[in-house]
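RECORD TYPE: protein structure
NAME: TonB-dependent receptor plug domain-containing protein
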Amino acid sequence: MKTPPKTTPLLARSTLAITLALQTLAAQAADEARDSKLLDRVVVTGSNIKRTDAETSQPLLTVSRDEIKASGALTVGEVLGNLTNNDRGALSDLGGANSWASGASGISLRNLGTGGTLTLLNGRRLASYGFADNLQLNFTNIDAIPANLIERVEILKDGASAIYGSDAIGGVINIITTKDFRGVGLAVSAQQSLRRSWLARDRSGSVTAGFGSLDGDGYNVYGHLELYQRGSYKDSDVRPLLPAWYVEQNPARLQRSSGSFPGNYTGSYPANYKDPALAGKSFTTAAPGCAPENLVGAVCMYDYWKDSDARPATDRLTGMLGGRYKISNDLTAFTELQFADIQAKYYTNVPRSQAAGFTSNWYDSLKGELQSFSHPALPVGHPQNPYEFPVTLAYRFVDNPEMFKNVGASFDHRLVMGVEGTVAGWDIDTAIGTMGSRATQRQHLYLDRYGYAEAVTSGTYKFGQVNSADVLNKMFPEMGSTGHYRQQFVDFKGSREIYQLPAGPLMMAVGAELRHEDFFHRSMDNVLQARIVGFSGVNIEGRRNTAAVFTEFAAPITKQLEATLALRGDKVFNGFGAVTPKLQLAFRPAKALLLRGTLTQGFRAPSLPETGNGGASWFNNGRNDPKRCGTARALRDALKTGNAADQIEANLAFNSGCSVSFPSAVTPNPDLKPERSNNASIGLVVQALDNVSVSIDYYAIKRREEIGVPDIAQILQNEDSNPSLMPRDAVSVQDQLWSQRAKELTGQTIAFGSGAIRTMRLQYRNFYKTQVSGVDIDLRSRWALGDWGKLDLNLEANIQNKLLYWDTNANAYRVNRVGYDGVPRERVVLKANWSRGDWKLGSRVNYASSTKLASDERDDSYYQPEGCAERDEPDSNCRVSSWTSTDLWLQYGGIKHWTLSANLLNAFNEQPAVYRRPAGLPNLNGRVLKVSAEVKF
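PREDICTED:
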């Protein structure tokens, strides 16, 4: 017998509080219940048949414009970030400096990734971003959607491939914008932390203008332009704000680097050196001119944290133009142009020189060959070499830090033209459109293998001075990549009543789509020619034509029971196809009770990067190498007993085995099959009063034939079973120098038995599976309080029950990830909004339950409770506590044409949960104040 899942204290208290409120106000609400009236039939997300809101048999959540304002969200990403079924695991532009899809953000529902979540704008697809997520998945950049024009967001928490086709596995997000606007509207918003003014410092503003009345004049035309700017700050700026537990786990945040300006001479005296006392000895000596405050002993240090962004800046210009024209009383023509111009800037560490003889490896994507570069020493006779033998100058190239920023930019557009209305009894909606996204990524951070070596060894580069732009550009040329996604489409759908059954009308919808897509992602020539040291390239292109037909029936079997059946077929010309069915049942045994359930299949078509031509390679960073990590730990401990220079080398030695970087190469696979899923949901809606409804829905999704490459961690753990996937280099000179110095300090022989990983060779295949299940709860109520105004009390919750990933080596599912790091069992949002006259006041309580610190039971034992016990730490050190925050909202509309509002986010200054493992920065914002003003004429 299974033990029922535990309910969190907050969830229990929240539900009890709302229940008591409902009981208190029930009598008054019943007296003021509105007379029922017939609702207009509308298109609801997840169906092609027009229906009333009350008829929906699917778990659909609607977030209104007022709710968006009350949340304080400035962007679409923040709006969707407030959803309880958003797993927060998708790509974010905040991490764009280390992303192949620089400058963009995605959305993931149900832990199924950007490829399992479909995003729509006004019921139709958006352009995929010009770059692919992780070089694999085409996805929608939600940053390209203007936030201030949103009328509402509909979230279908169910699979819908039978309606929309590919990607609608974990859910559908339909962002619906204002379509009929008259007059001129201006809106401005600004926010910043009350802890430090430069934290969370964001600005947005928009202008909307429209004229004409569709009902009165027969037309309406509008335009909307929106600007969003995110403020930035450096890693060094937040150093005084870091909590002690974070510094303990991330000690490098307080460290400085010996790769400095004007640098440090480092190396070893030759074994036959003229001074026998120095022969064979290692040394590190500051170059002349080091500022006194940067000298630590004899070593010149550099604070590299002052160059890198803790929070990168972005500028986004988004907009929409639209028009509607009445052709007749029954037909309306429409057009819609959406566009976005985005630029994100990521300042990273200024580059430094490497030890002479240190070898960088990377992959030549064109030739399919591994490349290597041995970093040069300053030769004898070099103007900056005071020694009689070649020497390393550990140096930081600080000439022009501005040039080393990483810029991710994109321009997106989507033009749709169509007709909707009624023809011969059919409700029709047809359109033709074109869309695209062009993305670029540019930076000067990496060195040119020829230009750099020549400038260093010849003396062209003047160490300790400010060099010209020409010299720097030869050493660190502009490099990056360009990507483009384009789509043209035509679609048609129509619905109507086709027969009158005893229990009601039999409704039918039919439709078809044609789409052409093409995609390319190509690195600049200097990358593809393997001139850029350590940076592997990508050269992928693909195109396809797809046709789809679909039908849907809504049949009232009895007065209480309705069935909806949908069937869709998608076919790539000269390629794969998919047929996806869907069955929904809605049973209403009483007016106040609706029982509903869904069985459906879903699919994700292999992306163009997965099936196209070419290939890609990238670097894996921060990996644990099982064959070297034990030795690396021992070398670190030995070197830490030495001088200041040894302390620095200790960390480098540790990273060489326990935080390694190496390239991987992957090629597309034209024989891939679509990913498939089986989705099931069952739930109920209880509406005891006209103004109170509660829905509870259980969902279960099994996805199979998932496309991916072998898991890097598993390849590392099982290297000996397939060594051809992971060739290694010989033990390096640097490895031997660390061993030599460790023996000098401790007398122990500590030596690597294996060289560094050279590369990994991979290809996309269908071999993964995922299972997810859980419960969604949605409680909504509205109470009329007489002279005291109106009160809305809402609760949204997602309780995860299962998250299983497939282990290809064990041929079985891994441990259930729910309750582990990053996957809380419960996410809950409790909202209360009160309005009276010109005033509105609201609060929002956000809750995420506690998790284990470990990310996995099997491969992450260090952070399991038994790991804490081995280190004599309390069990609490291997857990991440629950986190609760409260947001407050105030709005005033008593000034003609104006609406003023303020949000206080994290009003009670809830501190970030303690996270005792190396990671990115915790939330340091504290309380954040946002103020907004809107005016409409």
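COMMENT: The radius of gyration is 30 Å.
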